[in-house]
User: Which sequence fits this backbone?
């Protein structure tokens, strides 16, 4: 093995639905060993599916990813893989019920970035992002993330634990670093996972990076190359943050979807859900379809080129599939903001309603209040649809993941899978 885990050949992260399905098929023969091998961080990350970017942006659905291995294995054999797929649903559901946690994170991040008294902390965090820490293996992980847009989940936990409990840096700055660079960067999974490592998500339960754990799950020759500073991880001590009150559920239900009325409708495709031909929108008869690139937000959040290119490819693929499914040419947004693009497009086609899949809590969702007001002033109604499976799973996230998993299993046994009819 070479010294760097991301040395050629690089892990592949499918940016089209076809490539994602092909990659899923290629992974199925290895899914039976997933529970045994998944924590081992190896060259090319061949122990895991590497489908998280495609799943996060719904080039393929969670249900598709979870059900594919069942063509070959018993459910019990691949249960760990199935659970890992549904962790993303759990985190999204949990945050959807408690959106104030996302707002709190954003406010804390702004305070950290703007307070002159914290300039030294920001400088230390920047050095860690640039792979200039005393621990070589953490420098490697920072470089891998920036170079590839990916980190193995175990490496993410080690890195977050080191950032918070060894470097004693604010978890919010680390979460921002990850969200900027990860191709699968998901506001819910990322924010809540960093909170968990910090001991805030499950109160008092922190995650510490221990040398013995790294030595167990990393190749010996790789560790030999990156041994500098490992002694700093021999006896890590947790940073105990001030306890927070248990977050309450502040959004128990989502707004209901209004009835469609007479008039011209348009479908809006966005990066949060790129398989509208396999959604409740599939039965509609739109006048026009638009696929937006939220480049203004990508720029504001400092997304790197590798992430912008992946998103552009994925959005173009979603637009192409929608065009084939609906028999309509899908328009693009160019460099305009989402609001400007939708207003111009709706006026051009004299639309009365714009329909889309509901974005989850995150940067796009944060824009919806302004967007809906602007469209309403122009006499255009913005309507969101939800996938039946999302609606079924969302109310189950009242506690921890394994409680959610048990309730999910009981629900499926009682009611059967809640899949989109068009999927």
Assistant:
């Amino acid at each position: 093995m070479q010294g760097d885990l991301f040395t050629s050949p690089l892990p592949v992260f499918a940016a089209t639905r076809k490539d994602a399905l092909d990659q899923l098929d290629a992974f199925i023969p290895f899914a039976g060993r997933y529970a045994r091998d998944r924590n081992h961080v190896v060259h090319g990350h061949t122990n895991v599916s590497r489908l998280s970017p495609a799943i996060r942006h719904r080039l393929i659905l969670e249900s598709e990813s979870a059900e594919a291995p069942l063509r070959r294995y018993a459910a019990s054999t691949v249960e760990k893989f199935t659970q890992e797929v549904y962790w993303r649903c759990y985190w999204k559901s949990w945050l959807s019920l408690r959106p104030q946690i996302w707002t709190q994170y954003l406010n804390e991040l702004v305070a950290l970035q703007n307070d002159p008294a914290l300039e030294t902390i920001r400088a230390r965090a920047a050095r860690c992002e640039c792979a200039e820490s005393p621990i070589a293996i953490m420098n490697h992980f920072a470089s891998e993330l920036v170079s590839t847009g990916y980190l193995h989940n175990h490496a993410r936990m080690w890195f977050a634990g080191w950032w918070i409990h060894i470097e004693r840096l604010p978890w919010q700055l680390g979460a921002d670093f990850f969200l900027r660079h990860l191709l699968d960067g998901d506001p819910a999974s990322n924010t809540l996972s960093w909170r968990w490592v910090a001991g805030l998500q499950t109160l008092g339960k922190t995650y510490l990076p221990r040398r013995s754990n790294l030595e167990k799950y990393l190749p010996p020759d790789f560790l030999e190359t990156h041994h500098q500073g490992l002694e700093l991880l021999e006896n890590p001590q947790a940073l105990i943050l001030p306890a927070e009150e248990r977050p309450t559920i502040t959004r128990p239900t989502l707004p209901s979807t209004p009835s469609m009325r007479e008039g011209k409708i348009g479908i809006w495709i966005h990066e949060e859900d790129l398989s509208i031909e396999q959604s409740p929108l599939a039965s509609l008869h739109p006048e026009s379809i638009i696929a937006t690139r939220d480049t203004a937000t990508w720029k504001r959040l400092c997304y790197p080129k590798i992430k912008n290119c992946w998103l552009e490819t994925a959005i173009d693929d979603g637009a192409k599939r929608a065009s084939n499914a609906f028999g309509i040419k899908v328009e693009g947004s160019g460099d305009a903001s989402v609001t400007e693009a939708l207003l111009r497009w709706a006026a051009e086609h004299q639309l009365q309603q714009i329909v889309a899949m509901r974005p989850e809590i995150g940067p796009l969702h944060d824009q919806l209040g302004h967007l809906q007001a602007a469209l309403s002033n122009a006499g255009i109604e913005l309507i969101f649809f939800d996938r039946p499976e999302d609606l079924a799973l969302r109310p189950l996230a009242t506690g921890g993941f394994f409680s959610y998993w048990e309730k999910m299993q009981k629900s499926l046994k009682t009611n059967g899978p809640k899949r989109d009819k068009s999927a």
Residues 130 and 142 are 7 Å apart (CA to CA). The beta strands are 265-269, 288-291, 330-332, 353-357, 381-385. Residues 416-423 have pLDDT under 50 and may be disordered. Residues 305-326 form the longest helix (22 residues).
